[in-house]
Amino acid sequence: MEAVSLTGITSVQMLLKIGLDKMKKDYVSFFIGQELATLTSLDCFISTSVDLQEQVHCVQKLHHMLEIMVSCTVLLQFKHESLFPWTQICIKYYRENPPDEKHVFQLPVSSALVKKFYPDHPEVWKVDISSGHGPKEVKTTWQVSTNPPVEHMMSNNTGLLSDSTVNAGIEEKMYFIAVVKCSQVHFR
Q1: Side by side, which strands form the sheet with 138-145?
Q2: Hey, which residues does 131 pair with through a beta bridge?
Q3: Using an 8 Å Cβ cutoff, are 122 and 163 in contact?
Q4: What is the pLDDT of residues 54-90, one digit of tens each?
Q5: Would you list the DSSP string of 40-64?
Q6: What gap in Å lies between CA 18 and CA 24, rounded to an integer?
Q7: Which three-class secondary structure state does DSSP give residue 131?
Q8: Structure confidence at residue 165 as a pLDDT band (50, 70, 90)
Q9: How many whole angstroms separate alpha carbon 84 and alpha carbon 57?
């Protein structure tokens, strides 16, 4: 066996390679152990055929994905059925993009998952509706609020919507249009 000199940069590179391999194995073990990904879906993150800098970026990507999943599990108490699609979204993004701690993921969340975090009667509701595809896609956003856009609307009780049909017998709340956007219609 050939002796390897431990002077200069060689020893640091060896330690870096060992550390990267260990971290990649730990991250992959988490995703596979939690049944959030397969080894095949993570193969691009664990390749040793790329240079050391790219391997460091791959470990950063795995770390970002792990942070998202752990935050959703610990802080938001989400279960596997929610975490699995989110993991797939993160994997897809990081396969095609460099590590980016500031990237904002748009992860689908059903209202039932977050119900415990909002009050019984939210002050603001927002709905985004998309239809069509490509150049014919139309995105419409409605945001309603319990606060009127101007003071005088409250004095004459003229709201857009009322929740009395949903909560009969409970104090009625009025909802007012706060924001309306439509990608195919330009409001002036």
Answers
A1: 124-131, 138-145, 174-182, 161-162
A2: 138
A3: no
A4: 999 999 999 999 999 998 888 888 888 889 999 999 9
A5: TTTHHHH-SSS-HHHHHHHHHHHHH
A6: 10
A7: strand
A8: very low
A9: 23
